[in-house]
Design a protein that fits this description.
The protein is mostly helical. Helix content is 80%, strand content 0%. The chain folds into two domains: 179 residues, MFS general substrate transporter like domains (Growth Hormone, Chain: A), CATH 1.20.1250.20; 197 residues, MFS general substrate transporter like domains (Growth Hormone, Chain: A, Up-down Bundle). The two termini are 33 Å apart. This is Major facilitator superfamily (MFS) profile domain-containing protein.
Length: 475
């Protein structure tokens, strides 16, 4: 760990505690609803009530995302994350007191609302406080900790009683509040709202290098960058119509579209069929554990690789793996219809294809795209862009239902060939459209998107002049 940026790693740990809390509480339904089915609780929660409970999730995420967009630019990134921990704590209180279905509805609404906030603001905060050469890895570290929290809930939830879990679950958001409270505010946000001295102080804390030329120059560069970006149009209409943002819009909405159509929901719906086809003696519930375990393990691998091999390479391999997995399953089911006995003897190949799909999807498409989404937009529209993308992501729910209906009407083979083609189109899109952003500062990324290769001589002269004036005032 470099001495000059220990605080950046400390902040990553704090945000990771928060994201693991979100994973922990928002996976509550996986072990707990099963306890209702087995009559291991002190009140009833029937199938109809369970359906309404699950319908709250996309609503809470959507409302939380929009709310985060409003308060993030008004009160700051750190304050917004703290707000999420408080809301999650209130949800945990309803869990502890739960004795009727409506209390579980409120609990789920508050928990998913807080998740929408964290999922929206967490990446923005990390992108703005972490140095370029470690930004991707540390951002993804906070993401895979969400899956660690999910796995923890699955393991603990199966071993403790319903009431014991609900009484203790409030510990998680309280720990998150304690972790987030001391971390610094984003210097970019502070400069955006005109708090220059506080911004410089927070930048110095993050670099632990107060008073040196490097900090002075870096602060002046950041200040000029923020000033320049805040002069650009930032209304919702201009966000879509101004050509300055067009390339970033095409890339991010393109990647989000391929993610929505990646077929994860279709694959999850075939777990039982594939286990039967492969004659694999595995409880379907264990597939959920395997799924989350792969997300966690490959998430760690992705975090280690993203700043070394780059965003593009991971996304390209992700699309290749997904496409091959769908093609193998499509070929298997197509041949199986004609040579049933012969092909069923190698049914395990479908299980292997599912595992390859889960690994490939987690390696790039489900993780790296979230780093790219934040990096490509300038400060003046960054929050609005991320909120718009995540609202657009909400289309994934009806689209996945549509894919399932398409599977039921056209057959599994047609759906899998369609998904294989979509993944290959994603590969082509990434190869020709997505620029590499590893080890580039947010300012350098904007210059790259505009076609500016270097900082102008006039800009560097201005930076040096401002740095000298700052030193004279300090002396």
């Amino acid at each position: 760990m470099e001495d000059g940026r220990k605080l950046q790693y400390v902040v990553t740990c704090a945000v990771s505690i928060l994201t693991s809390t979100m994973g922990f509480i928002n996976t509550w339904a996986t072990p707990m609803i099963r306890k209702f089915w087995l009559d291991e609780t002190d009140f009833q929660f029937n199938d109809e009530e369970t359906k309404w409970f699950l319908k709250i999730t996309p609503i809470g995420l959507l409302v939380g995302t929009v709310f985060a967009g409003y308060i993030c630019d008004k009160f700051g990134r750190r304050t917004t994350l703290l707000t999420a921990t408080v809301i999650a704590a209130f949800g945990s209180i309803f869990a502890a007191l739960s004795s009727a279905a409506w209390m579980l509805y409120v609990m789920q609404g508050l928990w998913t609302f807080s998740l929408g906030i964290v999922w929206t603001v967490g990446n923005i905060y990390m992108a703005e406080i972490v140095d370029p050469d470690i930004r991707g890895g540390l951002t993804l570290a906070t993401r895979f900790m969400f899956h660690f929290g999910s796995l923890l809930m699955i393991w603990i939830g199966e071993k403790v009683s319903y009431r014991a879990m609900n009484n203790l679950i409030i510990i998680a958001p309280l720990l998150s509040f304690a972790a987030i409270y001391p971390i610094p505010e984003s210097p970019y946000y502070l400069l955006k709202v005109g708090k220059e001295e506080q911004a410089r102080k927070e930048l110095s804390r993050l670099q632990e290098n107060v008073g040196t030329e490097d900090i002075d120059t870096q602060f002046e560069k950041m200040k000029m960058h923020v000033t320049t970006e805040m002069q650009n149009p930032s209304s919702f209409f201009k966000f879509f119509s101004n050509k300055r943002y067009r390339k970033a819009l095409i890339i991010t909405f393109g990647l989000m579209s391929f993610y929505i159509l990646s077929g994860r929901a279709v694959m999850q719906g075939l777990y039982l069929t594939i286990l039967i086809e492969g004659d694999i003696k595995l409880n379907p519930r264990k597939m959920v554990d395997i799924d989350v375990g792969i997300k966690l393990g490959i998430g760690i691998l992705s975090a280690l690789l993203v700043d070394r091999v780059g965003r593009r390479i991971l996304l390209l391999w992700s699309f290749i793996g997904c496409s091959l997995s769908f093609a193998v399953i499509a070929i298997y089911f197509e041949v199986r219809d004609y040579y049933t006995e012969m092909i069923q003897s190698i049914g395990y190949i479908t299980f292997a294809a599912v595992i390859i799909f889960l690994i490939s999807n987690s390696l790039g498409l489900a993780s790296v795209k979230e780093v790219v989404e934040v990096e490509l937009f300038p400060l003046n529209v960054r929050v609005m862009a991320v909120v718009t993308l995540y609202v657009f992501r909400g289309l994934g729910y009806p689209l996945n239902l549509g894919l399932i209906e398409f599977r039921n009407s056209a057959g599994r083979v047609s759906v899998f060939w369609t998904l294989a083609v979509i993944a290959m189109l994603g590969f082509i899109f990434t190869y020709f459209v997505l620029p590499e952003t590893k080890r580039k500062s947010l300012k350098e990324i904007q210059e790259m998107l505009r076609g500016d290769d270097n900082v102008s001589e006039q800009e560097m002269t201005t930076i040096h002049e401002r740095t000298e004036r700052f030193r004279e005032r300090a002396a």
